[in-house]
Amino acid sequence: MSQPTSGDFTKTPGWLDWYTGPAKPRFQLPAGAVDAHCHVFGPGAEFPYVPERKYTPCDASKEQLFALHDHLGFARSVVVQATCHGADNRALVDTLVYSQGKARGVATVKRSISDEALQALHDAGVRGVRFNFVKRLVDFTPKEELMEIAGRIKKLGWHVVIYFEAVDLPELWDFFTALPTTVVVDHMGRPDVSLPVDGPQFALFERFMREHPNVWSKVSCPERLSVTGPKALNGEQAAYEDVVPFARRIVEQFPDRVLWGTDWPHPNLKEHMPDDGLLVDFIPRIAVTAELQRKLLVDNPMRLYWPEEA
Ligand code: 0GY
Fold first, then answer.
1. Probe ligand 1: pick from 137, 161, 164, 168, max atoms within 8 Å of CB?
2. What is the pLDDT of residue 231?
3. At CA 63, angle to CA 258 and CA 158, rounded to 5?
4. Whose CA is nearest to atom 9 of ligand 1?
5. Nearest 5°: phi and psi at 105?
6. pLDDT (tens digit, 9 = 90+) per residue, 73-129?
7. Is 275 known to be catalytic?
8. In the chain, where do the E strands start and end?
9. With a threshold of 0.85, does the pTM exceed it?
């Protein structure tokens, strides 16, 4: 695969570029598998990063994304608008159009967006909006504005993707449970996996999903959540071991409401850059039967993003 380039922008100090030599996974993905959480960055020279961004990444183009997917065995992609592009969805739309229907998207929009512009996003393949509550990534948007956007996108059959840290769930609970659409949580609501899986923090997240059948979760990003890290404790298969009980529990309790994604090109990682091939090998440790794997990787994302084909 080709090397990342930095475009016209100076990368955030300490930025880790994505890994260019991913292993071939040992786990063979089921036919039609969907990477339901990945991003494109620029290239900055063509699709500039927005002035209000909180980081400047390396470039990560659509061609590089799709080459990775071919290598790993993914048939389809869900590309999520990254915060470095703000509400400028041009790089996302360019990727969706280029994919000829094999990629769908989750956009970021402002309240001021016109109905025509929303329809144009839909025609390109956008099926959701992302509301981000991670303070290091975005400035605050009033909840009334987000609720107004949710009401408008509901009419298009879209859903809302929410990104937040576990400690903020109590404060955000009323807003999340009032959303009128399907709600997809990024990375299990970022639990602190050094806490017990049976403890109150994760119990609240499980309650959130149990009491609200419109809530789905991505069981992705072990590399982001793990404290023990990628280092094998008992052989290679033990990488990110501390995340396994959390993700496995969500997959087994809510098998029809879980999604998985690589999170390529892995923005803002500070310690290490994962090998995407080894990340795919994490999947059978959290979805331990062929049926769970098929739901996680094919049936669920198809129902949400390609309902006309599911
Ligand atoms: C992720 C996580 C992160 C960043 C973004 O859009 C973004 O900038 O999503 C993060 O820094 O935790 O899901 O890619």
1. 137
2. 75
3. 35
4. 82
5. -135, 160
6. 999 999 999 999 999 999 999 999 999 999 999 999 999 999 999 999 999 999 999
7. no
8. 34-38, 76-80, 103-107, 126-132, 159-163, 183-185, 215-218, 258-259
9. yes
